[in-house]
Write a structure and sequence with these properties.
Blueprint (H helix, E strand, L loop, with lengths): L10 H31 L5 H32 L9 H25 L3
Helix pairs in contact: 1-2, 2-3
Length: 115
């Protein structure tokens, strides 16, 4: 009888915690933007990116939890060499970060040019 190589509490749990920290950081950054951007730029239009950031943080938290449960179930049922969930979650995070960076660049340019 061989001992399974998978320990259900280690790697998947650390990865889930990292995704949760990422979602929390995006949520806190969005709340700060919700507070700072309208005062700094004088427009309520800047509420939209902050609200979208909060919604993305909630979605990211939910998907990370789901990914953790699927990964754990697959590793328990099939072992260490099973196919794990794909890269949709990191790709979504990359898209969000690129969009937020472009928006921040636009804000800096708008402020520098005097709106």
């Amino acid at each position: 009888m061989s001992t399974p190589l998978f320990d259900p509490g280690l790697q998947p749990e650390r990865t889930a915690l990292a995704w949760r920290r990422t979602a929390l950081a995006i949520g806190v950054g969005s709340l700060i933007a919700l507070r700072v951007l309208p005062e700094a730029l004088g427009s309520l239009v800047w509420l939209t990116p902050a609200v979208l950031g909060l919604m993305f943080a909630g979605w990211l938290w939910w998907r990370a939890d789901r990914r953790y449960r699927v990964t754990t179930r697959v590793l328990i049922e099939r072992g260490d060499h099973a196919a794990l969930p794909g890269g949709a979650l990191p790709a979504a995070l990359l898209g969000f970060v690129v969009a937020a960076g472009l928006l921040a660049l636009g804000v800096v340019i708008a402020v520098a040019l005097g709106r």
